[in-house]
Amino acid sequence: QTGTVTAAADVLHTTQPSVSRLLAQLAYETRLKLFDHHHGRLRPTPEAQALLAVVELHFEGMDAIALQVAAIRRAGAGMLRIGCTPALALSVLPQVVHDFIAQRPDVHLKLDTAGMSTLQAGLVRGTHELVLTTQPVRRAGLDAEILQRRNMVAVMHPTHPLATRARLHARDLHQQVLLTLSENDTTYQQFRRALQQNGVEPRAVVETSYSSTVCMMAGAGTGVGIVNPYVASVFADELVVRRLLPAMPVDVVMAFSAQAALSQAGQEFAQLVRRLLRTMPAP
Question: Does the N-terminal or the C-terminal CB of the chain have fewer CB atoms within 10 Å?
Fold first, then answer.
């Protein structure tokens, strides 16, 4: 590029003898004639030009790696994929997402709301980095952390006859229209056992897959809904929310793959979830 050893030394901020030694070493190591002398200048040979092309490609690759490292440092892997069951997506995630985007606007956040079997499969396949659920995590290869334990609640329209009570017992639900999750849900199974143990016969039962649907039907005056306290908090301005006895615990669980560490963005998201649940008032 410069044509002389002295000019090359100036560009490299070194001395002319140092550049001469490097050229001699390069010629020795490659066993190529790289330059000839022409009127006091060094002219690169075709072999030198061919070698330069390879070296430039190498440095372009190094520059690309450096740029990618900088991008990963800024934004983690670039996309954070979170899985969540519908009730928590409606109640817990909105505030967490708000706080996360405020501190990490450079991360593309993808939220997948699905049932537990789909979410667990996503963790195993690597399509989800972490999952939030109120269902037990029992699949091999997954780690789970219980973040909080609360109890199921009853929700109803403010004009419902049971709305005047400070709390409800399963016995109070005899001959009531009950709104519940489907029978494969672990909270429904707890509730059914409580009814059987207390000899409660409902007048009718309406099953659905979503806690939000239970709350909407309760708001329409259809009956008494049994839901987790997180989704109940979303509808607290429209419904009466009452403690339910006997206590039926529901856990908020955060699950990860045991085979892969969380990204920096994933760690920050998980910490925001923990912080929100610590400050969330009990219904």
Answer: N
What is the separation of C-alpha 65 from the centre of its chain, rounded to a whole number of angstroms?
Answer: 26
Tokens of 48: 């030198």
Q: Running DSSP on this structure, what letter comes out for residue 188?
A: H
For CA atoms 10, 11, 14, 18, give the dihedral sign: negative
CA angle at 81 for the pair 230 and 186, rounded to the nearest 5° = 40
Residue 204 parent element (H or E): strand 204-208
Nearest CA to 83 among 108, 120, 138?
120
User: Residue 140: its pLDDT value, please?
Assistant: 85
Q: State the pTM of this model.
A: 0.69
Query: Tokens standing for 1?
Result: 């590029």
**Residue 258 parent element (H or E):** none
Could you report the per-residue pLDDT of 158-207, keeping only the tens digit for each?
999 999 999 999 999 999 999 999 888 888 889 999 999 999 999 999 99
Query: In what side-by-side order are the strands of the sheet with 167-169?
Result: 167-169, 240-245, 153-156, 224-227, 177-181, 204-208
The 8-class DSSP code of residue 280 comes to P
Classify each residue of 168-201 as buried b or exposed e, where b means 16 or more C-beta atoms within 10 Å of its C-beta. Answer: bebebbeebbbbbbeeebebbebbeebbeeeebe
Interatomic CA distance for residues 61 and 40, integer angstroms: 34
| pLDDT value of position 73 | 60
Instruction: Return d(Cα 189, Cα 186) in angstroms, integer.
Output: 5
- Mean pLDDT, the chain, whole residue set: 89
